[in-house]
Design goal:
Blueprint (H helix, E strand, L loop, with lengths): L16 E5 L6 H8 L3 H6 L15 E5 L35 H12 L13 H13 L10 H6 L29 E3 L8 H14 L2 E6 L20 E6 L4 H11 L6 E6 L9 E6 L7 E5 L11 E2 L1
């Protein structure tokens, strides 16, 4: 569920169609299915949508008459994003800039996993550092200045760490395939960090299964827990993926690249000191390389012993 961006311009609704306002979680494919129209027809009826991956909550779209099912020709449509998640659509911002556009940029950086510090509308050193890290991740000049190049980069995924090196045969498992069929059961557990919640949605789609959350925000240190746990910073979650072993979840997350920067991922095995086996994901709050660790895994890490892999 990687969020997309688009501008707010809306073309007039076709007189031979009905209108529909995009809701949270909508994609063009789900709208087409709900309205009984062909997906290709829906796209053609909405020329104002330059990229079907980028629709946003509140956007008005045309629903064409007719019920031809059509096909999507393999195009993957992503879930809609709210305007607050999108970066500023115009202007130049740099250190010293202030105002609502800076706040919008800060929220967009945080949504991508790059911590700009407090969302305060003040483009200071932390916002500049977050922007530079984002620019570097997208393969553009890391000058810390937000302009057209950086704006366009928000619609792209991070580049491979091997980009610019001699090409090698691609491996089918180097880029995660998401199918959009995942779900999350929070079971009353609070996970207040919006960036982490968004990442959970992406992981659920990656596996195409239900994620069961067993722990989230904490204001106490449980038996066997750490006083420096990211749970106490309200930026961590413990989970299981339905029908997939914790060992496989850990391995696939490590190889997929979904959590390549800014996270700690720990597989707590059957000998864990933390109260029961699970997969832990914590967000550091900056763009440092992610760390993958084992704890309480027989033959690899003892109880309370954290081994990087």
């Amino acid at each position: 569920m990687i969020k997309g961006v688009d501008n707010n311009s809306v073309s007039p609704i076709n007189s031979n169609s009905n209108s529909y306002n995009v809701k949270s979680g909508d994609t063009l494919s789900t709208i087409a299915k709900e309205k009984g129209v062909g997906l290709n027809n829906l796209i053609k009826a909405n020329p104002q949508i330059s990229d079907p991956n980028k629709i946003f909550v509140g956007q008005q779209i045309s629903i064409p008459n007719g019920s031809s099912t059509g096909s999507f020709d393999g195009l993957s449509v992503r879930k809609s994003s709210t305007p607050d998640d999108r970066p500023p659509q115009s202007g130049i911002l740099r250190e010293g800039s202030k105002g609502p556009a800076v706040s919008q940029l800060q929220r967009a950086l945080a949504d991508k996993g790059f911590n700009p510090g407090q969302i305060d509308g003040d483009f200071g050193p932390r916002t500049e550092a977050a922007l530079k890290a984002f620019q570097k991740s997208r393969g553009i000049e890391a000058d810390g200045i937000y302009g057209p190049q950086s704006r366009a980069a928000f619609s792209r995924d991070a580049i491979s760490s091997n980009e610019g090196r001699p090409s090698r045969p691609s491996r089918p498992d180097t880029k995660p395939d998401t199918n959009g069929n995942g779900s999350i059961s929070y079971n009353g557990k609070r996970v207040s960090d919006p960036v982490l919640r968004g990442k959970l949605e992406q992981i659920a789609d990656f596996f195409g299964r239900n994620i069961t959350v067993t722990s989230g925000d904490r204001d106490f240190v449980p038996k066997g827990g750490s006083r420096t746990s990211l749970h106490l910073a309200h930026r961590a979650v413990d989970l299981h993926v339905q029908g997939v072993s914790d060992a496989e979840v850990f391995s696939r997350l490590k190889s997929s690249g979904i959590l390549s920067n800014g996270y700690e991922v720990i597989r707590h095995g059957p000998n864990t000191a933390t109260g029961g086996p699970h997969v832990h994901i914590g967000r550091y709050g900056d763009a440092r390389p992610s760390q993958f660790k084992l704890e309480g895994v027989p033959g690899r890490a003892g109880a309370g012993q954290y081994v990087r892999v």
